[in-house]
Amino acid sequence: MTIQSNIAQAGTVWRPSNARRVVLDGFSPVPRGGTGRSPSVLIWPEKDPSDVLDYEIDIGPAILGNEGDGIVAINITATPSATNDIAVTKVAADGDIVVVWISGGVAGTIYVVQVTISTANGRTLHRSILLPVQALATATVPSSILTTSSGAIVTDQNGNPILLGS
After folding, report:
1. Chain centroid offset of residue 96 CA
2. Pairing state between β 2-6 and 52-58
3. Regarding the domain delimited by 2-133, which CATH topology (the fold level of the hierarchy) does it fall under?
4. CA 103, CA 84: separation in Å to the nearest integer?
5. Per-residue model confidence as pLDDT tens digits over 58-109
6. Distance between CA atoms of 57 and 43, rounded to whole angstroms?
7. Domain boundary assignment for the chain
8. Is 116 a residue whose pLDDT tops 80?
9. CA angle 79, 55, 127 (to 5 degrees)
């Protein structure tokens, strides 16, 4: 699944959540004969397959010192990309921040979201971001929990389930 969009700046009252934000590192000079450090792996917090959430990419540090530069186009590809896998439903730019709305996914899968960002001054930034999908909305009842004959969970005075053998 690939989504490509020329981006107009977001002009809504809605504000993206920075709880799901990754920040691109800035570019620092490397002395002659030195070696640069390896970039850190970018990873968003896990989502449930039923979630439809906004995820952010902050490119501010990567274009620091280049006043007037900004996001003009974004291309997003997610893998794997089969039926029921994640879907990018909307893309927007809010200043130096790319906002990507993602839905779906298969529990137990770690998706690779590849993002290519083009800027007004001709820069192209390409990054891969990991997005783990886990079944967060479904809870399985451990076999060690005490239940009544009708299947109701027996709890203590604080509302905690009582475990057999404890």
Report:
1. 17
2. unpaired
3. Immunoglobulin-like (2.60.40)
4. 10
5. 999 889 888 889 999 999 999 999 989 999 999 999 889 999 999 999 999 9
6. 11
7. 2-133, 138-166
8. yes
9. 50
Going by the DSSP 8-state scheme, the letter that residue 20 receives in this structure is G
* Whether residue 120 has pLDDT greater than 90: yes
* CA–CA distance, 56 with 18 (Å, rounded to integer): 7
Distance of CA 20 to the CA centre of its chain: 6
Identify the three-state secondary structure at position 163: strand
Which two tokens mark 38? 């390896």
Q: Output b/e per residue, 103-141; b: 16+ Cβ within 10 A.
A: ebbebebebebebebbbeeeeebebebebebeeeeeeee
- Mean pLDDT throughout 54-61? 93
Beta-carbon-side half-sphere exposure of residue 165 (alpha carbons within 13 Å) = 4
pLDDT tens, residue by residue, 16-28 = 677 899 988 766 5
The rounded Cα 65 to chain-centroid distance in angstroms is 27
Adjacency order of strands within the sheet including 52-58: 21-23, 52-58, 97-103, 87-94
Do residues 98 and 63 make contact, with C-beta atoms less than 8 angstroms apart?
A: no
